[in-house]
């Protein structure tokens, strides 16, 4: 049986946690392939709410294996805190959680530099989550990262030498570029701290590529859980206002050590409107607008990781159509349709116009740095009644069905899931494109 990838099609927070939890019942393994604890995935069932930052949203189902792939950057303290919090809430975490020993570690200097750099940038900041994600991936690509396997290998001398030489450079950068009076990063202290943390993670460590390929070869189904969203992808997103990993479906292969021949389907998770946290372009944003405020309040659009208020706007078909292309999506999950219940008229962006009046059917690559884009809208009538909790497609109001049909037409993929509330059971499953 195949691999299925779940990818956010906008700028994150589309409802990936809910869909991955929901689909976990049907699969054997759930694996995260990129990002770190910048993610915040919400899962709600039986009046309980969980927010996961690192651990895959399949953890709530008995008998399922969850895996953090090599492409994830792991803050070991954050991982241990999350395990402890889940256990406190009665969720079993043991041999059902595996962590790649090739995963790069988020170190104290990564978190410090993330925050210091943002402060220094002032108005030009990215609005990161401050979890050290960018600096950790920089070091990974710059071949200056540390991985779980180095702590596991037991060669203390080699580890000390490598971290020692890394810290020499970090301390020069710290004092000369950021803060001349900052306390230096201390080799012994960091070594002791990380040796103790990695020791605690040790029972979960594995070769994630071997584990996932063994599962696939044995006929099991693996769900690859993306974090962030397509337009936060470091290659294809609204650069430089992006995260530092490949959020698109290809990231599942490199981030888990699985070949593309193993991926059968890609499900795009899409909100019925659009949100964004942090800085960066957002053509359909309803800034300082009563409808934007309505979406924010009704959708409870507050960041699950940093608690920041999310920027809100109309559904943007250019954004989602591009996401479908970039990840080869086979179907969409349309989330939070109930949030639109009270609106008289809905707008959908179908194209963009630039400063010179040229029309764009896809997102210009300079949008992150040059701006100057205005959406071209279509208007659709709202349904003006509650659809909260509806589980059958035929029970949706005609106006809601027309809105969904138009989105499927514009994005050129079928809608296989319609979500009518945050809980697991508040879902219409259509089994199209899933
Ligand atoms: P993720 O990062 O993609 O997993 O999404 P988040 O968990 O950060 O944000 C999605 C939010 O929307 C969470 O608070 C969910 O509980 C909530 N949510 C998901 N689906 C629905 C839905 O259909 N209706 C409503 N009202 N809320 C939903
Ligand atoms: P989930 O998985 C929404 C945003 C940050 C910032 C940019 C870079 O819950 O959808 P980073 O800390 O990654 O270097 O920040 O990316 N960002 C997210 N926005 N949802 C997320 O994750 C995000 N993870 C990062 O706000 O604009
Ligand atoms: Mg989120």
Structure in words:
- 32% of the residues lie in helices and 20% in strands.
- With 434 residues, it is α/β, with parallel strands linked by helices.
- It has 2 domains: 3-96 and 207-429, Adenylosuccinate Synthetase, subunit A, domain 1 (Adenylosuccinate Synthetase, Chain A, domain 1, 3-Layer(aba) Sandwich), CATH 3.40.440.10; 104-203, Adenylosuccinate Synthetase, subunit A, domain 2, CATH 1.10.300.
- The strands form 5 sheets. The chain has a 10-stranded mixed β-sheet, sandwiched between helices. Strands 14, 16, 17 and 18 form a 4-stranded mixed β-sheet that branches.
- A hairpin with a 5-residue loop joins strand 16 (345-353) and strand 17 (359-360).
- Helix 2 packs across helix 7 and helix 3 (108-121) crosses helix 4 (133-141).
- Bound molecules: guanosine-5'-diphosphate, 6-O-phosphoryl inosine monophosphate and magnesium ion.
* Low-pLDDT residue intervals, each spanning 5 or more residues: none
Approximate strand percentage:
15-25%
Percentage of residues assigned to helices: 25-40%
Task: Compute the average pLDDT.
Answer: 96
Overall tally of structural domains: 2
Tally the helices: what do you get?
13
| Strands side by side in the biggest sheet | 9-7-5-2-10-1-11-15-19-20
CATH topology name of the largest domain, in short, is Adenylosuccinate Synthetase, Chain A, domain 1
Output the structural class: alpha/beta
CATH class type of the largest domain: Alpha Beta
Keywords:
Adenylosuccinate Synthetase, Chain A, domain 1, 2 domains, 13 helices, alpha/beta, Adenylosuccinate Synthetase, subunit A, domain 2, ten-stranded mixed β-sheet, binds 6-O-phosphoryl inosine monophosphate
């Amino acid at each position: 049986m195949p691999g299925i990838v779940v990818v956010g099609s906008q700028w994150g927070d589309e409802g990936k946690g809910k869909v991955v939890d929901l689909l976990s019942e049907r699969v054997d393994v759930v694996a995260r392939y990129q990002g770190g604890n910048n993610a915040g995935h919400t899962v709600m069932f039986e009046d309980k709410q969980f927010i996961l930052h690192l651990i895959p949203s399949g953890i709530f189902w008995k008998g399922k294996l969850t895996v953090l792939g090599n492409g994830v950057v792991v803050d070991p303290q954050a991982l241990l805190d999350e395990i402890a919090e889940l256990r406190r809430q009665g969720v079993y975490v043991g041999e059902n959680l595996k962590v790649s020993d090739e995963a790069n570690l988020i170190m104290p200097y990564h978190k410090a530099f993330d925050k210091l750099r943002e402060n220094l940038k002032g108005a030009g900041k990215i609005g990161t989550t401050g979890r050290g994600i960018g600096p950790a991936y920089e070091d990974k690509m710059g071949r200056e990262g540390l991985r779980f396997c180095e702590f596991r290998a037991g060669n203390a001398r080699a580890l000390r030498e490598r971290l020692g030489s890394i810290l020499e450079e970090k301390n020069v950068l710290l004092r000369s570029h950021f803060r001349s009076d900052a306390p230096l990063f201390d080799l012994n202290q960091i070594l002791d701290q990380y040796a103790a943390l990695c020791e605690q993670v040790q029972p979960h460590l594995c070769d994630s590529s071997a584990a996932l390929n063994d599962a696939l070869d044995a006929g099991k189904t693996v769900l690859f859980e993306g974090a962030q969203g397509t337009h936060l992808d470091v290659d294809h997103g609204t650069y430089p206002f992006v995260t530092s990993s490949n959020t698109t479906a290809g990231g599942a292969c490199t981030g888990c050590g699985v070949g593309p021949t193993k991926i059968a389907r890609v499900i795009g998770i899409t909100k019925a409107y659009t949100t964004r946290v942090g800085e960066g372009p957002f053509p359909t944003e309803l800034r300082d607008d009563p409808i934007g405020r309505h979406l924010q309040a009704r959708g409870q659009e507050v960041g699950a990781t940093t608690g920041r208020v999310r920027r809100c706007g109309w559904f943007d078909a250019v954004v989602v159509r591009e996401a479908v292309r970039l990840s080869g999506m086979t179907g969409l999950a349309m989330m939070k349709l109930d949030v639109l219940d009270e609106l008289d008229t809905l707008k959908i962006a179908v194209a963009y116009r630039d400063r010179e009046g040229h029309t764009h059917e896809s997102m210009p690559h300079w949008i992150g740095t040059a701006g100057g884009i205005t959406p071209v809208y279509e208007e659709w009538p709202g349904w003006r009644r509650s659809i909260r909790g509806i589980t059958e497609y035929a029970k949706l109001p005609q106006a809601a069905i027309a809105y969904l049909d138009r989105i499927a037409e514009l994005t050129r993929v079928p809608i296989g899931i319609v979500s009518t509330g945050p809980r697991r059971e508040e879902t219409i499953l259509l089994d199209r494109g899933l």
